[in-house]
Amino acid sequence: MSKFSEIINQEKPVLVDFFAEWCGPCKMMSPILKEVKDTLQDKVVILKIDVDKNQAIAAKYQVRGVPTLILYKSGKQVWRQSGMVQKNELVSIINNVG
């Protein structure tokens, strides 16, 4: 858990993708997140958290559905959405907090 806190407390935006292996929309988010990373490169950290393997973190952050995307900046949650999000929307949101 402390490693997670360390990661989200960075200066640069950290996009956390809470997902599950069995989740269809989660699988569709993977290539979108890769494109976001390719576009923004080192302006963002993208962290994938498997809710089945990390139930304590999912519970702490009240993740009830997957995929859930949460954007952190300096340890503070600045944006959150459950469900699929398109690349352009994500890039825009990250650029606005960056």
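Next protein, fold it too.
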Amino acid sequence: MNAFNVHEHMQALGLQAKTAAALMAKADAATKTRALKALARRVRDAGPALDAANRRDVERATAAGLSAPMVDRLKLTPKVLATVAEGCDQLAAMPDVIGEIIGMRQQPSGIRVGQMRVPIGVFGMIYESRPNVTIEAASLAIKSGNAAILRGGSEAIESNKALAALVGAALDEAGLPRDAVQLVQTTDREAVGQLITMPQFVDVIIPRGGKGLIERISRDAKVPVIKHLDGNCHVYVDDSAELDMAQRIVDNAKTQKYSPCNAAEGLLVTASVAAAFLPQIGAVFAAKGVEMRCDATAAAVLRGAGFAVVDAVESDWSEEYLAAVISIKVVAGVDEAIAHINHYSSHHTDAIVTRDHVNAQRFLREVDSASVLVNASTRFADGFEFGLGAEIGISTDKFHARGPVGIEGLTSLKYVVLGQGEVRT
């Protein structure tokens, strides 16, 4: 497909999405619920055709030499499909927030002023690897009354086409416009350039992928972007932490899965418990083949306990490894931990393990990240785990949407005024 045809294709998708968005905004809760339940059922029943499409993508990606984390993200395992189907059902069971009026207050003039929650309109989703995002984005578009144009990575094209067909069938079944969720059918990279420069059709762009992709979109887009660049997440083990709990949390945060953006990349341990805790977690990491990149204090403790470690360099503190590597630093206490996180983290997700209520509250208030956890793994920073049904992505921006972006992140508020004939004097 040449550039001219890509332009025509994207313009057509934009116009169709804009038309569908007006219909989606009017759809009642029962209709949207029917579509979500139909989609959940179709994902569960997808079977061999979807397996075959996904297998073609995985085999092609492996042959092309994609990294192991990227190939892992491509796989539509039964667990992945069960999770996205459950997400559709969870969304279906949630209240419909569209049309909700909040904060209605009487003014001295006699008018009543409040805000109504409404759909954003059309969002463009650009994502790499994970084809399950196709279902997550579609389900959130349906629930929030928006239209979506989805552009997945070329490495997942067969899986995305198969999943988009399920979405279209579910929309048809519920009587909603099939154009409410459209997949860009070409792998030509020019399609991305077109999608992010169509403010006449697209209201917001949501990229999910590598830092290079997100930086390019943030730089070139002519419409607002909801984004995060890195997932450099930390766990801080405080001096009052219960160490067996800390071991479970740190182990899970780092090793439950290496590729997600909410996996821990940095471990901070307060000096008073370093001698006891570091050999304990070091044994776990050594058994699992996790490379430990340590500051001088942590390295001395771990080497003294017989573990092989690597001396950390400055760049390690801000690195998103997405691999079996973790940085480890010993800090004086909660003040230094908070300062380190706020300086080096990507403001995505950070956790404290502590039994000290004051330190926990300080960590929650002072750590400048989109998700902050006490005594829980960073791996919980996820729309599904937060009860949002699904997420369109994680935002580390500070306005409109922050953290996992669910239904409310895909809506806007407009002011509504109710009067009884008042006029301004």
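About the second fold: The CA atoms of residues 94 and 308 lie 49 Å apart.
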